[in-house]
Amino acid sequence: MSAAVRVELTWPRHNVVVVGEQRYFGLERDGAVHLIASRCPHRGGPLHLGEVEGNGLRCPWHGNSFRVDRLCTRGVSTVQRGPHVIAYLPDGGADPVATNTMVLAQ
């Protein structure tokens, strides 16, 4: 079992979490916040800068579309109470940093 680090963020003030080299972005669907790995599995593009079109999130680098519901299902599980979101992310060798940055995928 790999190590995990706990992260707490205040949604929507914090919409991105960075752990080492990995970036996760918050995507709200049906009242729940999902943390999605921002790295596209094909070419490593920044999915948080992609566009949501219908039920798909389009990678800004190569244009492939990923179903939002599948991304949410495969994302990091979160516990949410009001604006407070808690998640356990894979250990990236550094302390997690919750921040606010431009996220086009909404």
From TrEMBL:
Pfam entry (one): Rieske
SUPFAM superfamilies the UniProt entry points to: ISP domain
UniProt keyword terms in alphabetical order: 2Fe-2S, Iron, Iron-sulfur, Metal-binding
Superkingdom of the source species: Bacteria
All copies of domain Rieske, residue ranges: 2-97
Keyword Manganese set for record: no
Record keyword ATP-binding present: no
InterPro entries linked: Rieske_2Fe-2S (IPR017941), Rieske_2Fe-2S_sf (IPR036922)
GO MF, one example: metal ion binding
Name assigned to this protein: Rieske domain-containing protein
Native organism taxonomy: Bacteria, Bacillati, Actinomycetota, Actinomycetes, Pseudonocardiales
